[in-house]
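Table S2 (text version). Query chain:
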Amino acid sequence: GKGSVYAVALMDKARIIPIYAGMIRSNVRIINELTAMPNAEKNTLNGYTRYQQAAVIANANQAYAKVLSLAGNNTGIRTADLKKGEDYRLEAANIAKNIPISITVSNDRAARIQGAFAQAISALGFRSGGGNSRYALKVSLVLAPADIPNQPYKFVRYVVDANLTDTVGDHILLPFNVNGREGRLTIPEAENMAVDAAEKKIRDAYGETLSAYLSSLLPQN
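Corresponding structure-token output:
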């Protein structure tokens, strides 16, 4: 009569307890496999990604542990001892600090392209710089006049090619490219707008591209 609807949820404790206990134990094994590695491998992009994945699984275990506690935990699992996702995220952040990514850009304009890449990398928790960095982002910026007939504006085409490289073996891990053209009344104005457009595309797209690459490093089960 008051316009309220009530729902009652029932839980079969005898059935639920072994199911959730099994999921927790399985997840703990996966976390241990993800994080079991020597420091030389830990302080790499692959190690960083593994700890981020461990954080996701640890958060799931926290949710399972709450259900197990409500059901009456008699499994011997000490839910208070389960690590939280934040523990692994903090360690991932420490790993990121130990593997800075150096950025070099040829033909840059007032370090604008370098700054755009640094901003995208920083948003993911990494820092740029370091002369002895294992990971190097090697970038080239090319600006060239584009002849377009019957147009009152001067056009400039821009091409940015970037390769994230592992200096151990000099392997290219992640290629990246943005390009386009911009037109203005003069070539210098068009060049300036071309760099503006390149900056925006890098800030908008590079972080997402790098994040997708890091996700691809996860062990495939």
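Notes on Table S2: DSSP finds six helices and four strands in the chain. The mean pLDDT is 91.
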